[in-house]
């Protein structure tokens, strides 16, 4: 299939400063801006998204609203509005490499048999000050995004994702009931029929989380996504999953005592402990029937 137009879909929730940075960064894309558009889907129903008067970009930018909570609901709304035969997904805190679109465009135009279900690539982390990492940044330095491993397992993340619009339509888009893990679910479904292609030159940079509470929120959200997908109405198996999760965090921290410097290992132990406390509290909230975190 010869690609004619790309639609970039970006969900947004209370992250305006980083969204503006992303939108400005997209102005440096090497691929002609006549060949792509950007659709920002604001998912914060309390605060409609309005860009500053001074802000401008050279490409087609459309801002729409989605009142149904969740980034996957927002992405589905963007999919409905998209004009492209190729859909690109990234997040409001990310910064794509300037060759991101051009390289993806090239790879798809070599896909003569239309075998690609999802095209993805590296998602390197960047830090506020690499010489002085916070505890959360230290933890993420050793965990990061293993997108190549994900791809080999038939999975991809929406920080760096391209698909034919026809493929997304075939599988019905993202599961809007999920607050997390929706990218794993959809890419897993797609990989049952098409390939997940990992390309080293399709790069999106992602900020490391700076605060421990940001990491804790991430894992609370992931726990909720796992519950919604696999354990609803099954609290005993869900408790077993929680125990395994806690054990893995502490095992990871203990292993790092013997493989990294003492300062880093102490930071990792601290982060793992607070993550585990957070997920225990989230588990208790979920089994009481409270909604999962977004």
Q: What's the CATH class label of the largest domain?
A: Alpha Beta
Which fold name is given in CATH as the topology of the largest domain?
Spore Coat Polysaccharide Biosynthesis Protein SpsA, Chain A
Overall number of strands: 10
Cα-based radius of gyration, to the nearest Å: 19 Å
Poorly predicted parts:
none
CATH architecture of the largest domain: Alpha-Beta Complex
Task: Enumerate how many helices there are, as a single number.
Answer: 10
Shape: globular
Helix fraction, binned, reads: 40-55%
Salient structural properties:
Spore Coat Polysaccharide Biosynthesis Protein SpsA, Chain A; three-stranded mixed sheet; five-stranded mixed sheet; alpha/beta; single chain
Tell me what you see in this structure.
With 294 residues, this protein is an alpha/beta fold. The chain folds into two domains: 6-115 and 157-189, Alpha-Beta Complex (Spore Coat Polysaccharide Biosynthesis Protein SpsA, Chain A), CATH 3.90.550.10; 213-287, no CATH class. The protein is 44% helix and 15% strand. The chain has helices at 16-26, 71-81, 100-109, 135-143, 147-152, 165-170, 182-190, 212-231, 235-256, 262-287, and strands at residues 6-12, 36-42, 60-65, 86-89, 95-96, 116-120, 125-126, 161-164, 195-198, 204-207. The strands form three sheets. It has a five-stranded mixed sheet with strand order 3-2-1-4-8. A three-stranded mixed sheet has the order 5-10-7. The chain has a two-stranded parallel sheet with strand order 6-9. The radius of gyration is 19 Å and the shape is globular. The two termini are 36 Å apart. The model has no long low-confidence stretch (mean pLDDT 95).
